[in-house]
Structure formats: C-alpha cells, structure tokens
Amino acid sequence: MSDVAPSLAGWMARQRWYATKGRTPALRVIGSFESDLGDALALTLLVIDEAGDTPVLYQVPLVARDAPLPGGDRAFIGSADGRYLYDGPHDPAYAAELLRVMTDESRVEGPDVVVEGSRIVDPGRVRRSRVLSGEQSNTSIIYDVEGGPVEHVIAKVFRVLHHGDNPDVTTQASLTRGGSTHVPSSFGSLRATWTDPGRDGGTATGHLAFSQEFLPGLDDAWRVALAAAAAGTDFTAEARDLGVAVAEMHATLAAELGTVAAGPDEVGGALVSMRRRITTAAREVPEIAEHEAAISAVYDAAEHLAWPELQRIHGDLHLGQALLSPERGWMLIDFEGEPLRPMPERSRPDLPLRDIAGMLRSFDYVAGSLAHESTPIDASGWAHDARRAFVDGYIASSGVDVRAERALLDAFEIDKAVYEAIYESRNRPDWIGIPLAAVARLAARSTPAAG
Predict the structure, then answer these.
(1) Residues 6 or more apart whose Cβ sits within 8 Å of residue 38
(2) Predicted TM-score of the model (pTM)
(3) What is the residue extent of each domain of the chain?
(4) Strand, helix or coil at 270?
(5) Residue 323 forms beta bridges with which residues?
(6) Backbone conformation region of residue 375, classed left if phi is above 0, alpha if psi is from -120 to 50, else beta
(7) What pLDDT was estimated at residue 451?
(8) d(Cα 161, Cα 339) in Å, to the nearest integer?
C-alpha cells in the first residue's frame, strides 16, 4: 500500500493513548509488517511522532478492507488506495491473527522490522473478540476461547513502544513457568526488532503485545479493603493471605530469574534516586522540608546496612494490583513497574522490601481515604491491624523476618511516602496529610534519638 500516514494524524490525535495532547501529530513510518487475512490485509506500522519535544514511537495496527467492516464505524480511520482502514484490534480478523502469531511462535519480516512470537501455553481456539474500553496507554483485546485451559484470554497491544523487554511480559511469563497460582497464566508474546540508527548496533528491540488469562468480574483489593474498613470489618485474615501471596511471588521470581548481591554500586544507585526524590519534595512541599534532615539521616544509615540480595520484583505494588478470586485467592497483576521509570530500569533487580513498603503504604491510604469522606471514618486501627497481618503472612511464607530489617524497610516506606507527597501536592492538595503523617512518623521513629 502507498503511504497511509496522512490518514493517521487526525485519528491518532483523538486517541486516548496519544501522548502529545494538543498538538498535530508529525508522523514518520520507520517500519512495517503485513499479514494476509484472506479478505483483508493487516498492516502494522511503527510510527515516530515528532510533534513534541521528545519523539514518541507508536505501534499502529491497521486492517485494510475492500468493503466496510460491519459494525466497524467507531474503528474507522480513513481510506487509502481505495480501501477502508480500520484500527486493527477492533477487527476480529486482526485479533485472531495477533493471538495466532504469538502462540504459533511465528516469524514475520517487513521493511526495517522483524517480529517473532513466543508461546508459553496454547490458549485454544478463538470464538469471538472485543476491545476493552477505557484504557489510557494500551489497547486490550478480550477473547472468548475454547479447547484451552481457560475460557477468556486478554491480549495487551502496547501502543507506545520502548527499547527493552517489558517487565509486564517477562515477569508474568516467569511466574507462569514457575507454576505460580497467584498471577493470571501467560500464553504468549510478540517481540520486534527494528532499525534505530541512534542505538549501538543500529537496532532496537521491544515487546509489541502479550496475552494472558483474563479474570473478569473480580474485585481488586483496594475496593475490598475500603469496604471492609468502612464497615469496621476485620480484614486481618485477608491481609495475611495477601502477604503470603506476595512472598510466594517473590520466591518464584527468585527461583526463575535468580538473585544478585547488593554491592556498593547497586546500593548507591538506589539511594541516588531516593535522595533526588527528597530534594524535589523538599522544594515543592514545605512540610517535607521540615523532615529533610531526618530523612537524609535514615538514608545515610540505610547505606551502611547489610542489604539482602536483589531480585526481580513487582515494582509498583499496591492494593489496586491484587484481585480477589473466590476459587484461587489473591491474584497479582500489572507488572510493568513504575510508569515514569525508563523501561530498562523497570526490570533491574531490586529489593523485595520495595514491594512490601508499597503495600503497607496502600493500607495507610485506605484509612486516609475514609478520613476524607463527607462523614469521616477513623480506620487508623483497622489499617494498623491490616499492616501487621500482611507482614505476618509474608514472614510466615518467606521465612524472612521483615521486622528485623525495619530500618531498611522504613527507608523504602519513607521514599514511597515522599513520592506520594509530591503527587498529592500536584494533584490532590487536600490529601497531602496522608503521606505527610507517614513521613513524620517514620522519620521520627528511625532517628537515633527515637531509639
């Protein structure tokens, strides 16, 4: 097909996943690959948008049809060479082909790009597909399947591409291979190598899509915990089970992907980012500045502690990243790591304590959220009990006495609370008291004077 980029600019600017809002896309196709769908052509473009200060690389899957796609009006993009162009994930033929290429371990070559599928488990035969609505940065396709281990599969199509393996793919695949029952089963992924003159060797590589078990209708832990806290319902059993699930996830990742010693470079690198964050927070949040010296002392002390071995972790763990299944208990999801960190950094070995700190902060936020209701609810005791039970469950499963590493755990929890303070000051100033209270409490108890 001839150049289709002119048809894309206006359409891309209206998409939720388009990153440079308010500007007209300035597009340049750097690679493409095709699949024959019988009565249609699937054409996936790798498109650089240079409208913003920093170029962004997008994946744009298209389907070109000689006749209109029934029910495809909302996915219609425009026309090129007399054919109708549709957003690929909304076209059932593309959706089925995407899953096939992933799980048949197919190899597709196009101009300046090579694509390879990687299968973990055969998901079965596709009966129908639909696009999940409401997503911001990716597009997810939900499949009803038969003849496989599950009834529903979800394929996530990454719209914004980055060099480097996506931890959402590699971490979940490792957990599936390791037999974890606390994550949705992974089925396959799609990885591409494309021309990139700016990189050593002239190429870049990254994931385009991956597929996993879809778990519809499950409540996430945030909603479950919030309802329990609001009603004053004991949550310690659930919190303890969640601690067990997180510990088992860490154990599987360590077994599958290995561990590394926390040497001076690794410790120093972690503390550089933590100190940078406290400097930013002290500048933006005056209340944080009052604790800057105490926090810096906590970080200085942490630098001289014995750090446990590093390993792959979740990286952005909180109550919203866990689903409660009546049959399987807690299921952990969304392993992409902190969205603002560069892709290679998200896969770096880290301390499991970072995940633990994130979950502890999330329990604190349940109480903080209820305190901001029109009729405030004091759930501080509930949060204290849930935090303790979560740690109890983690220790019981892992055999690691997290409380013996309190000084190091406090450093990571302070870092998370400092991050929250920056976020709240920029987005929800009325909520800034939640992280500020945590910073004050943790900094005070971690100083030598506090014993």
Answers:
(1) 93
(2) 0.91
(3) 29-213, 219-450
(4) helix
(5) 220, 331
(6) beta
(7) 39
(8) 13
Separation of alpha carbons 413 and 38, rounded Å: 55
Mean pLDDT of 326-348: 84
Instruction: Give the pLDDT confidence score for residue 447 in this predicted structure.
Output: 61
Higher-confidence position of 202 and 235: 235
Q: How far apart are CA 300 and CA 183, in angstroms?
A: 36
Residue 106 sits at the vertex; the CA angle it makes with 105 and 110, to the nearest 5 degrees, is: 140
The CA R_g of the chain, rounded to the nearest whole Å, is 24
Query: Which pLDDT does position 5 carry in this prediction?
Result: 66
pLDDT band per the 50, 70, 90 thresholds, residue 339: low
* CA–CA dist 202, 30 (Å, integer): 13
Degrees, nearest 5: CA angle 440-321-445: 15
User: Quick one: tokens of 166?
Assistant: 């996506």
Look at residue 179 and give its three-state secondary structure.
Answer: coil
Q: Which CATH number fits domain 219-450: 3.40.50.300, 3.30.565.10, 3.90.1200.10, 3.40.50.150?
A: 3.90.1200.10
- Beta-strand ranges (E) seen in 276-419 are 310-311, 322-325, 329-332
140: Cβ–Cβ under 8 A, 6 or more apart, which residues?
131, 132, 154, 155, 156, 157
Q: Is residue 212 very low, low, confident or very high in pLDDT (cuts 50, 70, 90)?
A: very high
Two tokens at 345?
A: 């950094």
Phi, psi (deg, nearest 5) at residue 409: -60, -40
Amino acid sitting at position 348: R
The structure tokens listed for 19 are 């990153």
